[in-house]
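FAQ: What does the model actually see?

It sees only this:
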Amino acid sequence: DGPVQAEARGELGHPHRSITYRIVRTLEEHRLVVRTADGGLIPGTRLAVLARAVSHDLQSAALPELTAVANELGMTAFVAVLDAAEVVALVSVEPRHAAAPVAQRPGTRHPLRRGAPGAAIQVALTAQERTALGAGLLRDEAFFRDFPGYATGHDEVIKGLSSVAVPLRVPAQPAAAIAVVYVDQGTDTAFVAHRLQQAAAAVARELT
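And it is asked to produce this:
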């Protein structure tokens, strides 16, 4: 046997630990898996976007709530999750009867520092996760201290559009936010935020 075969087999005939580490690192680099705070591994956002079919996961739990929110508010509703230093739309629902709904396609991404979903996701992070990201990606301390329970944004991600988002965090799932995006016409953002908070609570109950 050559050295490569010997390394791969390991002393006891099992895959060598270094081979496993390299495989895991490759999966992490492509964001197919991510590490949890306790060092475990969970499916990454890119895997979720590609597969979109893991039973009883964040997507399937959120879909009924997003549908209800979209149709009640007449706005496109979506779940966004943290992926490294970016925010990724994981699943979205457009309102059923809107004449010209705003599209928010799954897989769409933008920097963490921009937009209401990014702000809400930052609130959902643990102190350890914020430290790992680095101060350059986070809002200032006053933002976290004065956070009213929801975040708003306008013209930050898509020109002419506004958004409202609330944090969503459940065990074994990435930090996330439930949000809506819409063309602002005097919207009562506090009312919208309250409805999103109800949806986030329902999703959290489903997954815990």
